[in-house]
From TrEMBL:
<dbReference type="InterPro" id="IPR000715">
    <property type="entry name" value="Glycosyl_transferase_4"/>
</dbReference>
<keyword id="KW-0472">Membrane</keyword>
<keyword id="KW-0812">Transmembrane</keyword>
<feature type="transmembrane region" description="Helical">
    <location>
        <begin position="344"/>
        <end position="362"/>
    </location>
</feature>
<feature type="transmembrane region" description="Helical">
    <location>
        <begin position="94"/>
        <end position="115"/>
    </location>
</feature>
<protein>
    <submittedName>
        <fullName>MraY family glycosyltransferase</fullName>
    </submittedName>
</protein>
<feature type="transmembrane region" description="Helical">
    <location>
        <begin position="187"/>
        <end position="205"/>
    </location>
</feature>
<feature type="transmembrane region" description="Helical">
    <location>
        <begin position="127"/>
        <end position="146"/>
    </location>
</feature>
<keyword id="KW-1003">Cell membrane</keyword>
<feature type="transmembrane region" description="Helical">
    <location>
        <begin position="242"/>
        <end position="262"/>
    </location>
</feature>
<dbReference type="Pfam" id="PF00953">
    <property type="entry name" value="Glycos_transf_4"/>
</dbReference>
<feature type="transmembrane region" description="Helical">
    <location>
        <begin position="158"/>
        <end position="175"/>
    </location>
</feature>
<feature type="transmembrane region" description="Helical">
    <location>
        <begin position="321"/>
        <end position="338"/>
    </location>
</feature>
<feature type="transmembrane region" description="Helical">
    <location>
        <begin position="68"/>
        <end position="88"/>
    </location>
</feature>
<keyword id="KW-1133">Transmembrane helix</keyword>
<feature type="transmembrane region" description="Helical">
    <location>
        <begin position="20"/>
        <end position="39"/>
    </location>
</feature>
<feature type="transmembrane region" description="Helical">
    <location>
        <begin position="268"/>
        <end position="287"/>
    </location>
</feature>
Length: 382
């Protein structure tokens, strides 16, 4: 038992049988199981009321597909955070306020995403809400400090304040849309979201003052895994903008909560490495569209995303998802190494993520082979 506890300490777990570690495990399992159990019922209701994603230029589904998966993930996420708070309340008042700000912002993003999924909203309306949720974080003390970013010159406070606010808004809005734009092939965003959440969770767990970030990331990670069980190709449900906004916004916001600080000043270098896949994907898409003379690059869907390019080469949504999971995991492990995390923690995190992804993918494929195709036809891709 002592050797097991010693090994756990090497992985950053101070007390293997303590209340803190127990609450993290319960949070993750609650989100996973709740989302897993809730989706079939939500899917049935979505089919009845017509909550479905129609085929378009960006997506690959050839027939309407229920798009309410984001609601199930949000429900699992919120329920798990409530359970975690009941098990181990966060006693620092300022952290409580910041966590509530993140949850409120995530709720607004899910609501707007869901309305957009079902009825359609203008790009300007969505952008205004995204900026509003970014401002919500800023007024509660969650923002990028330009002067705290390594390798950049120090600037006067009169310039640093407005510039820091601008960078924070760009970070929140940019990452939220980057994750949303990746949602075009079965399992990609769900798997990448799980990888990134778990990597950030493992990194935050190495620091005793980041319990709030750990709780939020555990809930998000569990919700992603529960959803992925029904989204690996051929999917039975997709997350829609509501789910993509939940992932993008929450990951961006939690990074400001202090998940990946080198020192007292916040640095975006590590989150950028961990989140390199959606960031690079959006960057190359925007540059390509601007080069073709498209004035509104984010409002002009096409098939130039990384997942579309990989799909064109593999001709398989499953292979595409697995390849991009691997890329996301490699970026995540590089980010952990960049942070200076113990190699044992990096290795254990990689193995755990790989096993969890294999488990849900195997269960999905086995379920389909046992008769899913006959009971509920689904398109080849989504």
């Amino acid at each position: 038992m002592e050797s097991l506890a010693a090994f756990a300490q090497q992985l950053g777990i101070a007390d293997l049988f303590g209340r803190g570690f127990f609450s993290v495990i319960i949070t993750f399992l609650t989100a996973w199981i709740f989302t897993w159990a809730f989706i079939p019922r939500l899917r049935e209701f979505a089919v009845q009321v017509g909550w479905a994603d129609q085929p378009n230029a960006r997506r690959l589904n050839t027939e309407p597909l229920p798009n309410a998966g984001g609601l199930a993930m949000f429900a699992g996420f919120i329920v798990s955070v409530i359970v975690a708070w009941a098990l181990r309340p966060i006693v620092v008042e300022i952290v409580n306020i910041q966590v509530l700000a993140i949850l409120l912002g995530a709720s607004l993003m899910v609501l707007v995403g869901f309305i957009d999924d079902q009825f359609g909203l203008s790009p300007l309306s969505r952008l205004l809400v995204q900026v509003l949720t970014a401002v919500l974080l800023i007024v509660n003390g969650l923002q990028i400090d330009f002067n705290a970013i390594p390798f950049l010159p120090t600037i006067p406070d009169a310039i640093n304040g407005p510039l820091s606010v601008f960078l924070t808004i760009v970070w929140i809005v940019g990452l939220t849309n980057a994750v949303n734009l990746m949602d075009g092939v079965d399992g990609v965003v769900g798997g990448v979201g799980f990888v990134v959440s778990t990597v950030l969770l493992a990194t935050a767990a190495q620091f005793p003052d980041r319990a709030a970030a750990v709780v939020l990331l555990a809930g998000l990670s569990g919700a992603a895994l529960g959803y992925l069980r029904y989204n690996f190709n051929p999917s039975r449900i997709i997350m829609g903008d509501a789910g993509a906004y939940l992932f993008g916004y929450t990951l961006a916001a939690v990074s400001l909560l202090g998940t990946l600080k080198f020192s007292a000043g916040a640095s975006l270098l590590v989150p950028l490495v961990v989140l390199a896949l959606p960031v690079l994907d959006t960057t190359q898409v925007v540059i390509g569209r601007l080069a073709r003379g498209i004035r509104n690059p984010l409002g002009h869907p096409d098939k130039t995303h990384i997942h579309h390019r990989v799909l064109a080469r593999t001709a398989s949504a499953r292979r595409t998802a697995v390849i991009l999971w691997g890329v996301a995991l490699a970026c995540g492990m590089a980010g952990m190494a960049f942070q200076g995390v113990n190699p044992a923690v990096i290795g254990a995190t990689g193995v755990l993520i790989a096993l969890c992804l294999w488990f849900v993918a195997y269960r999905r494929v086995r379920s389909y082979n046992r008769g899913d195709a006959q009971t509920a036809p689904t398109p080849k891709d989504s």
